[in-house]
């Protein structure tokens, strides 16, 4: 095995610690972006559903404004957004490179996508259940927490998995401008220095993270479905 690795993955063997560090950096970016964008995206998605045309707090003005903002943000390619919000990134973190700096564009890029996913997930909740809750005098806040978020939990988990998989890809893209992580390693060492084995292994690790995320979400969906 050692001979095989030396023959086909010589550069990988020399960069063991770099691969470990890059994997940790990728997990760091994914975790904190998922937490921050998850909270804000869920809040925004709930507001979209509640103020939508058929929502429990229907408000055309608020809904139209939020929808247009989300549509505009989702239309901007992420690689352009990285450059576009550099002043904001520098203001918040003091720099535009590194994993912490990458959190700013990652969060801003993920929130609109996740909010729309949450909206679609909550719209799948049976309207009959919502009407029953309203007839029992449940407050709008109670309907949100006891009906929408409970009944829509399997769908929320499913769209969260899709978002995290998308996020892993965005962290690799952010690596192109010095954000660190596996994407940065694959480009700076693998692509720029023609070390194909580094690119291959970095890609395989990213795929493992994606499959692990999918497996965890599928398990949670089975446990929460009823």
What is the H-and-E element order? HHHHHHHHHHHH
Count of distinct strands: 0
Q: Radius of gyration over alpha carbons?
A: 21 Å
What CATH architecture of one domain do you see? Orthogonal Bundle
Identify low-pLDDT runs. Answer: none
Name the CATH class of one domain.
Mainly Alpha
Spatial separation of the terminal alpha carbons? 47 Å
Mean pLDDT: 88
Family: Belongs to the binding-protein-dependent transport system permease family.
Main location: membrane
InterPro entries: AA_ABC_Transporter_Permease, MetI-like, MetI-like_sf
Protein name: Methionine ABC transporter permease
Structure commentary:
- The structure is a single chain.
- The chain is mainly α.
- The chain has a domain of 157 residues: MetI-like (MetI-like fold, Orthogonal Bundle).
- 82% of the residues lie in helices and 0% in strands.
- The protein has twelve helices and no strands.
- Helix 3 runs antiparallel to helix 4, helix 3 runs parallel beside helix 7 and helix 10 runs parallel beside helix 11.
- The model has no long low-confidence stretch (mean pLDDT 88).
- This is Methionine ABC transporter permease.
Summarize the topology.
Layout: H1 2-8, H2 10-14, H3 16-51, H4 60-75, H5 78-84, H6 86-93, H7 99-122, H8 127-135, H9 140-151, H10 153-174, H11 181-191, H12 196-224
Helix pairs in contact: 3-4, 3-7, 3-10, 3-11, 4-7, 6-7, 7-10, 8-9, 10-11, 10-12, 11-12
């Amino acid at each position: 095995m050692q001979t095989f690795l030396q023959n086909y993955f010589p550069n990988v063997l020399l960069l063991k610690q770099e691969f470990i560090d890059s994997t940790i950096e990728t997990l760091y970016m994914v975790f904190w972006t998922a937490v921050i964008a998850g909270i804000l995206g869920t809040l925004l998605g709930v507001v979209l559903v509640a103020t939508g045309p058929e929502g429990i707090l229907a408000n055309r003005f608020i809904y139209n404004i939020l929808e247009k903002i989300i549509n505009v943000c989702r239309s901007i390619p992420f690689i352009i957004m990285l450059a576009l919000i550099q002043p904001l990134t520098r203001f918040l973190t003091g720099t535009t490179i590194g994993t912490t700096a990458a959190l700013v564009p990652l969060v801003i890029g993920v929130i609109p996508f996740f909010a729309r996913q949450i909206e679609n997930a909550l719209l799948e909740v049976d309207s009959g259940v919502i009407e029953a809750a309203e007839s029992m005098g449940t407050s709008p806040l109670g309907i949100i927490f006891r009906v929408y978020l409970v009944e829509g939990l399997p769908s929320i988990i499913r769209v969260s998995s899709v978002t995290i998989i998308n996020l892993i890809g965005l962290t690799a893209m952010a690596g192109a401008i010095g954000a660190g992580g596996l994407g940065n390693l694959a480009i700076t060492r693998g692509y720029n220095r023609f070390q194909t084995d580094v690119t291959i292994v970095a890609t395989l690790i990213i795929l493992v993270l994606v499959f692990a995320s999918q497996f965890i979400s599928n398990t949670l969906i089975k446990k929460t479905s009823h």
